[in-house]
From TrEMBL:
Record bears the keyword Oxidoreductase: yes
Record protein name field: Acyl-CoA reductase-like NAD-dependent aldehyde dehydrogenase
SUPFAM superfamilies membership: ALDH-like (SSF53720)
Keywords attached to this entry: Oxidoreductase
PANTHER family: ALDEHYDE DEHYDROGENASE-RELATED
Gene3D superfamilies tied to this protein: Aldehyde Dehydrogenase, Chain A, domain 1, Aldehyde Dehydrogenase, Chain A, domain 2
Organism: Sphingobium lignivorans
PROSITE patterns in alphabetical order: ALDEHYDE_DEHYDR_CYS, ALDEHYDE_DEHYDR_GLU
Keyword Thylakoid attached: no
């Protein structure tokens, strides 16, 4: 009896019952359970790729590479746009499955799918022409960009479609072929998208394999994969980097963050409170670049907190399939336990003040109230580590220099933000913050034509924009003499 037969109380999700390898659906004979975070119970099976499945996908991608790389940017752009249109058109059909496996409200699931198509088109519209470095009496030097070969993309569970499709667009537009691995917590919608690919792209150009940690490790070590693009935790990113070193794979690592935001005393407090609440609690706080530490100037602390608490306490929490929800459950059991531990530790600290929330909601599922806590310092794990959940610590500061020093005193450096009505002052503060992106009077905007990534342990390299997409290409210098 196969493993799938042994799990006969569940079924494969309709349309998400197969990997995509070489343009064909492949089911295999093993499966794993997918959990609905709103109930904490398994609701479907997902096929589990074997090492042989990975080898077959690599072979298919390798065989498809020369023909795909030989196409023009315009040809590849048109096919990526067609796939983007299919994903956007299928948003209403796919959103319930995405909500079921992820937990996010249905409207947010639809938005993620629709926006994924939009960003795919933006990324594949970037101008990636070769360049002439010089053409003078010393000779002509050209910079030419070539695709790397076969790319392995490992996507996270927090935005399983959007972040995966960003990688798809960047890899395919630059002429590479791709093997995409979704998170084992949220694999089903990605596999369903495989059905949209099969008759559109040449066989082997895009392959989709679902599996657990073993599959990710096999990909990072595989000699037939030339680059790994990984989005996920710092701990796993370090493992990816170490494994990829054996074959000198190119890597892009978009890792975790513990983003600080600084609310200066001249900030528009209504604007800041609304922005902080949205960034900190959208997607249940499960965003790498979400605000996770709030520093407020002491003169406006109480006024700001009053406005922030009003915004956060109004958020509606419940199953994503129910109407009118602002926030669903934490996506998976291990993350739920981690956030509960951070919350319990913070609540036990002397001086901790729960301004709103603070409760693990009773009943089934992985629900925690949106919570704002004051009275903590940087020694508390909730402040100095990445909580990745709906629990926000708020601290105060007496001077800008102090605020900058405390914000920078972190091993993370993904994003940060400054709120001030004085643009010159805000830009001066922003320039001192050690983060890959610093926003002024907003936080978390991620645009396809703008490079994104982190400093310090928050990443290696950049995604998006011309600078990011060049990481999916290899530079060749062509030099010749005059005449």
């Amino acid at each position: 009896m196969s493993e799938v037969d042994g799990l006969n109380r569940l079924q494969f999700a309709d349309g998400a019952d197969a990997h995509l390898i070489g343009g064909r659906p492949v089911t295999g004979n093993a499966g794993f359970e997918v959990i609905d975070p709103a109930t904490g119970r398994a609701f479907a099976l997902c096929p589990d790729a074997s090492r042989a499945d990975l080898d077959a996908a690599v072979a298919a991608a390798r065989a498809a590479f020369p023909g795909w790389a030989a196409r023009t940017y315009e040809d590849r752009r048109a096919l990526i746009a067609a796939l983007a249109d299919r994903i956007s058109a299928a948003a209403d059909d796919l959103a319930p499955l995405l909500t079921r496996e992820h937990g996010k409200p249905l409207a947010q699931a639809r938005m993620e799918l629709a926006v994924s198509g939009h960003h795919m088109k933006q990324l594949s519209a970037l101008d990636l022409a070769d360049e002439v470095l010089r053409d003078d009496e010393r000779g002509k030097v050209e910079l030419r960009w070539h695709p790397l070969g076969v790319v392995g993309a490992i996507a996270p569970w927090n935005f399983p479609i959007a972040l995966a499709m960003h990688k798809v667009a960047q890899a395919l537009y630059t002429g590479n072929t791709l093997i995409l691995k979704p998170s084992p917590y949220t694999p089903l919608t990605t596999l369903a998208i495989g059905r949209l690919v099969a008759d559109l792209l040449p066989p082997g150009v895009l392959n989709i394999l679902a599996g657990g940690n073993d599959l990710g490790a096999w990909m990072t070590a595989h000699e037939g994969i030339d680059k790994i693009s990984f989005t996920g935790s710092v701990a796993t990113g370090k493992k990816v980097m170490a494994s990829a070193a054996a074959t000198l794979k190119r890597i892009t690592l978009e890792l975790g963050g513990n983003d600080a935001t600084l609310v200066l005393e001249d900030a528009d407090l209504d604007l800041a409170a609304a922005g902080v609440a949205r960034s900190g609690f959208y997607n249940c706080g499960q965003i790498c670049m979400a605000i996770k530490r709030v520093y407020v100037a002491e003169p406006v602390r109480d006024a700001f907190l009053g406005k922030l608490v009003e915004k956060v306490s109004a958020l509606k929490v419940g199953p994503g399939s129910a109407g009118g929800m602002d926030m669903g459950p934490i996506q998976n059991g291990p993350q739920y336990e981690k956030v509960k531990a951070y919350l319990a530790d913070a609540l036990a600290r002397p001086g901790a003040q729960v301004l709103t929330g603070g409760q693990v909601l009773p009943g089934e599922g992985y629900f925690i109230e949106p919570t704002v806590i004051a009275g903590l310092d940087e020694t508390v794990p909730l402040v100095c580590e990445e909580q990745f959940g709906p629990v926000m610590p708020v601290l105060s500061f007496a001077s800008e220099d102090e605020a900058v020093q405390r914000a920078n005193d972190s091993r993370f450096g993904l994003g940060a933000s400054v709120w001030s009505t004085d643009e010159t002052r805000a830009r001066a503060v922003a320039g001192q913050l050690m983060a890959g992106t610093v926003w002024i009077n907003r936080h978390g905007l991620n645009e396809s034509d703008v490079p994104f990534g982190g400093m310090k342990e928050s990443g290696y390299g950049r995604e998006h924009g011309v600078l990011g997409i060049r990481a999916y290409q290899e530079l060749q210098v062509v030099s010749r003499p005059v005449g």
